[in-house]
């Protein structure tokens, strides 16, 4: 067994005595509690309720089309968003189940569902009601994975003995189908079906004409139908509230004693488990089977009302089929009960179920094609049979996956499986949106997906690792006890060794490794290591051995500066970069985590800086959201509006180098003071009161104010990694970067709301509608219809907006002046205490770094073009007759969605920094799909729908803006030890430079505006293959993770001058006053 495997086994024995291990593994400690059925019932109700909420709208889609003005696309968008939300949340849900436990995950899920149902009940205009419903369904899809498939295996493994696990999994899984069944019967009975006549549609095959029916429906009937929809939603809200109350009262995460040995054993941690799954070919084959069969089947079930309505089957009949089929799906529990008794025959049972399912689906498809007569008995018999047989396969595949991947945590296994299902489900919905996707084609796709699974199951070799552990407990107990004693003896012997590490300790460690070697079959318990119980010398030896095996080196410079190398430049090349005659660096010396300190005031620093960053974008984007009124008041045209937006990127490009130098040489406080002072001056110039006779002078003052505000842009946009590096520990850096970097975009979002709320929109006037052309409203012609008093009134409203922004800026500047320290007294991490390259050397290093420039180009092309597109969104949408206020809400929603997603994903990425690149690629893919649909709608390829336009625009912002903090962290990690301010400055330079290029073309008369949607879509799509070619490096995180001990050299030339976080400090005793590295044995980080 390798040293790594010995360490994993030692996770159990280092902190446990042999008696404790024996007590854990003795058969007498295994206990099955009757309350497991209560837990299963509550969990089943959660599953059922989740699918009732999920499947609220398809059974009543025809009534919703009539009352809310929906069409087929609206129903499909909701289904696609449900799949998309589940894709986004499935990995965090699996991580939540793995780290926080079942109770916490269930509480989070049911709380989010409660909030979503409340959003659906908000009474408003039908169009906005549709937006709220769509958003609520997205939230439900985010909440559902934690209590459905991802949590099912966790529940059965935690509470049930081996001979009941598969049955418990089946009950909890198929409860979701029971929820779908209730939605198919409760919905159509609470919400009346519109009267379509008798059942002659079975014979004619005519579909329903909603538009014609709407013309024959009275307002009283519409109001009645809307009230019944509200009653249905209210009942759902009450049901979810009761469940939330029940879970709060009693829902334990696990029983006091485990129900089986495999349940008592630990599981691999999240990252190790994910890596193990990636290498397990048997699991990938099961994953393919599960995703193909379930993905298509779930998608087909979600839109079966639309499919059946296309062949002339009414809503109520389709609802009865859905109800009957999903209730009958509970018969699938019998297959799981049978498989629990003869688990070695699970695979033959699975093949039989797939064959029978394919037969029933074929009969249903032939009936829809009218190859065989479409009668009610055939329709119901084939529909119910295919659901019952298919549902029987789901728990069997999930249990086979849990068996073959043990000791990977069940939540991780099921999470990955369900993620693949939702991906296929999303592809299904996208395919169904195309007009060529007829219902009959979807039926045959369903049959094909089931048939393909039959040979794949036949090829799969079943493994029962978890069951083998439970069935051979006596053999395992004996071997594990003897093995764990040997491993414990070996680990304790390492603790007694001294710190004189030469070649001898390496030989001794190999001897210990050999003595600790045990049979793989006896290594059944792997519990996460508590590293604080290992001595510093033992940990150092383990890290050095791991580094040596991986081909890495820990190098100490003559000045005591330590760099951990993974790959890339040689030691001599990177060491040369750190030698500077002009600037002395703080030695790493005796930097230890024990002397690093985390201050609570870091959140105050982050909040103040975030407000400064938000104000910069708020002031910059003042004029776009109120461009119509501004053109009337000041006599501007669209070119002037574009130029005002362009001043921000122009001033950024001009001043980015000196501002980066300021951040690097003068520190964070001076830089932030400079930024907020520029914002104060810029906002103040726009507030100089002038009457209507001096419009030209006021226009020039506004231009100057925009430019001066933009001078602080490099600090507002690029200092975020600097704040996180100086004040936050490694496990919070990405989150801090996300909050501060996305604060800029929060300012943009606020500008979309604040401006239209304080300044009336002249585009709402009747006269404006008469002056509408193909390119939008002619505001210059509209200006002639206003008298001077009306123009003065509008100018007064605009000046009130200017005064408001100046007041906020003044208050923020006072906060920065009174208290905004440039650094904490003690650094929060090892790398925060270490020096950075001097400005010129760091800049030269970046200029020679090809991989960094590839990332810079990707960032600028992805976020820069999108930022320019978003800032002139009002001009863009005016050609589609969307008013100023609506465009403002649209921009606000897009930016807020991006900010929320960026912060959420950054919290997740803080724990999985190695997968940050994959997260960014996934976000860019989602942005490409959203912007493609938006562009096709604007081009007229897809029928125009305001709801779809809003949803795709907001999703584009959610995905694109969500990548911004991750790009910053990727750049800073790959260029360390270059100062964070320099790296982020170059990064944001590309963003603003491409915005300048983007703004040039709308100002040219021949180009117009229609091309910008295509440009944004294409540039976002191009980022995906380019980012796939980029190689991720983690230099900074590796330094923090290794935590090596390196004695400080007594170098008299250092003169006690240190630099971390971009600022300098000098000690009082002539030596560098930095913390000493000692093992933090209590595992706690002190906080102020």
UniProtKB/TrEMBL annotation:
It is a multi-pass membrane protein. Keywords: Membrane, Transmembrane, Transmembrane helix. GO terms for cellular component: membrane. InterPro entries: FLVCR1-2_SLC49-like, MFS, MFS_trans_sf. It comes from the Eukaryota. Residues 494-509 have a biased composition (Basic and acidic residues). Residues 1062-1088 have a biased composition (Polar residues). It is found in: Membrane. Residues 488-509, 1057-1088 are annotated as: Disordered. Its main location: membrane. The keyword Hydrolase does not apply. One of its GO terms (molecular function) is transmembrane transporter activity. This is Major facilitator superfamily (MFS) profile domain-containing protein. The chain crosses the membrane at residues 37-54, 74-97, 104-125, 131-155, 167-186, 232-251, 283-300, 320-338, 350-372, 378-402, 414-435, 441-460, 603-623, 643-663, 670-688, 700-723, 801-820, 852-875, 887-909, 915-940, 947-968, 1011-1030.
């Amino acid at each position: 067994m390798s040293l790594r495997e010995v360490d994993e086994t030692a996770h159990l024995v280092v902190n446990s005595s042999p008696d404790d291990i024996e007590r854990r593994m003795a058969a007498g400690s295994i206990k099955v509690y009757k309350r497991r059925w209560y837990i299963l019932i509550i969990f089943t109700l959660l599953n059922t309720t989740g699918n009732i909420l999920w499947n609220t709208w398809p059974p009543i889609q025809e009534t919703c089309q009539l009352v809310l003005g929906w069409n087929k696309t609206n129903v499909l968008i909701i289904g696609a968003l449900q799949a998309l939300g589940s894709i986004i949340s499935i990995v965090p849900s699996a991580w939540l189940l793995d780290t926080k436990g079942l109770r916490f995950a269930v509480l989070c899920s049911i709380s989010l569902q409660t909030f979503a149902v409340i959003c659906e009940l908000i009474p408003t205009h039908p169009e906005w009601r549709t937006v709220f419903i769509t958003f609520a369904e997205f939230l439900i899809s985010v909440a559902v994975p934690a209590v459905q498939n991802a949590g099912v295996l966790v529940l059965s493994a935690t509470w049930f003995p081996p001979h009941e696990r598969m049955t418990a999994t089946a009950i909890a899984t198929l409860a979701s189908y029971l929820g779908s069944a209730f939605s198919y019967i409760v919905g159509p009975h609470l919400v009346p079906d519109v009267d379509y006549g008798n059942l002659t549609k079975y014979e004619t095959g005519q579909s329903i004409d909603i538009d014609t029916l709407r013309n024959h429906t009275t307002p009283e009937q519409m109001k009645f139908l809307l009230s019944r929809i509200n009653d249905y939603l209210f009942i759902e809200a009450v049901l979810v509230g009761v469940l939330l109350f029940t879970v709060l009262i009693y829902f334990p995460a696990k029983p006091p004693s485990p129900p089986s040995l495999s349940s008592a054993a630990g599981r691999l941690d999240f990252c190790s488990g994910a890596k193990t799954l990636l290498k397990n070919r048997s699991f990938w084959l099961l994953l393919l089977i599960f995703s193909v069969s379930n993905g298509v089947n779930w998608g087909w079930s979600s839109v079966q009302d639309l499919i059946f309505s296309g062949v002339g089957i009414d809503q109520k009949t389709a609802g009865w089929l859905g109800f009957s089929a999903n209730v009958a799906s509970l018969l699938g529990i019998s297959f799981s009960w049978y498989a629990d008794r003869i688990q070695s025959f699970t695979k033959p049972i699975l093949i039989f179920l797939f064959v029978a399912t394919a037969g029933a689906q074929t009969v249903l498809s032939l009936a829809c094609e009218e190859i065989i007569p479409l009668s009610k008995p055939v329709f119901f018999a084939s529909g119910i049979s295919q659901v019952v047989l298919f549902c029987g396969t789901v728990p069997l595949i999930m249990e086979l996956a849990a068996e073959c991947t043990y000791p990977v945590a069940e939540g991780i296994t099921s999470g990955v499986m369900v993620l693949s299902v939702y991906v296929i489900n999303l592809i299904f919905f996208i395919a169904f949106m195309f007009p060529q996707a007829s219902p009959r084609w979807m039926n045959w796709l369903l049959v094909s997906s089931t048939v393909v699974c039959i040979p794949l199951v036949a090829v799969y070799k079943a493994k029962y690792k978890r069951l083998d552990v439970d069935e051979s407990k006596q053999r395992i107990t004996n071997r594990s006890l003897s093995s764990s004693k040997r491993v414990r003896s070996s680990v304790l012997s390492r603790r007694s060794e001294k710190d004189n590490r030469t070649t001898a300790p390496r030989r001794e460690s190999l001897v210990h490794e050999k003595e600790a070697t045990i049979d793989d079959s006896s290594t059944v318990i792997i519990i996460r290591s508590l590293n604080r119980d290992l001595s510093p010398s033992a940990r150092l030896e383990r890290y050095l051995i791991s580094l040596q095996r991986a081909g890495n080196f820990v190098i100490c410079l003559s000045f005591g500066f330590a760099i951990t190398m993974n790959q890339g430049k040689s030691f001599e090349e990177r060491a040369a970069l750190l030698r500077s005659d002009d600037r002395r660096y703080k030695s790493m010396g005796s930097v230890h985590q024990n002397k690093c300190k985390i201050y609570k005031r870091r959140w105050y620093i982050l909040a103040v800086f975030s407000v400064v960053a938000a104000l910069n974008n708020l002031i910059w984007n003042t004029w776009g959201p109120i461009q119509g009124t501004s053109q009337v008041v000041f006599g501007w045209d669209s070119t002037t509006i574009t130029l005002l937006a362009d001043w921000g990127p122009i001033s950024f490009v001009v001043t980015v180098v000196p501002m980066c130098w300021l951040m690097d040489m003068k520190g964070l406080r001076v830089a932030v003071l400079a930024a907020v002072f520029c914002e104060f001056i810029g906002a103040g110039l726009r507030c100089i009161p002038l009457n209507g006779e001096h419009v030209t002078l006021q226009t020039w003052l506004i231009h100057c104010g925009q430019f001066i505000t933009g001078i602080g842009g490099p600090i507002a946009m690029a200092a975020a990694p600097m704040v996180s590096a100086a004040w936050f520990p490694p496990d919070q850096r990405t989150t801090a970067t996300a909050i501060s970097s996305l604060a800029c975009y929060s300012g943009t979002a606020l500008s979309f709301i604040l401006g239209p709320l304080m300044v009336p929109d002249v585009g709402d006037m009747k006269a404006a509608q008469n002056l509408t052309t193909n390119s939008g409203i002619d505001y210059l012609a509209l200006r002639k219809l206003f008298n001077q008093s009306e123009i003065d009134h509008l100018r007064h409203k605009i000046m009130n907006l200017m005064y408001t922004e100046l007041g906020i800026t003044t208050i923020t500047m006072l906060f920065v002046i009174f208290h905004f320290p440039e650094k904490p007294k003690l650094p929060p991490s090892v790398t925060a205490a270490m020096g950075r390259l001097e400005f010129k050397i760091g800049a030269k290093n970046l200029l020679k770094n090809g991989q960094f420039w590839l990332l810079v180009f990707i960032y600028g092309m992805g976020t820069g073009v999108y930022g320019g597109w978003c800032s002139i969104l009002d001009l863009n949408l005016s050609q589609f007759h969307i008013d100023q206020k609506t465009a403002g809400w649209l921009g606000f929603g897009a930016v807020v969605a991006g900010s929320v997603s960026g912060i959420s994903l950054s919290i997740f990425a803080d724990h999985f920094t190695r997968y940050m690149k994959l997260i960014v690629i996934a976000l860019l893919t989602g942005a490409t799909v959203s912007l493609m649909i938006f562009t096709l709608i604007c081009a007229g390829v897809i029928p125009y729908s305001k709801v779809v336009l809003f949803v795709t625009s907001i999703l584009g912002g959610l995905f694109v803006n969500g990548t911004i903090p991750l790009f910053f962290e990727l750049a800073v990690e790959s260029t360390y030890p270059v100062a964070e301010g320099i790296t982020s400055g170059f990064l944001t330079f590309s963003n603003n430079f491409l915005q300048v290029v983007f703004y040039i073309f709308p100002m040219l008369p021949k180009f117009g505006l229609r091309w910008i949607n295509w440009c944004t879509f294409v540039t976002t799509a191009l980022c995906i293959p380019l980012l796939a070619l980029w190689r991720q490096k983690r230099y900074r995180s590796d330094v923090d993770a290794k935590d090596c001990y390196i004695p400080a050299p007594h170098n008299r030339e250092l003169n006690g001058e240190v630099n971390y976080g971009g600022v300098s400090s000098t000690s009082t005793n002539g030596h560098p006053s930095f913390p000493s590295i000692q093992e933090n044995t209590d595992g706690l980080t002190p906080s102020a």
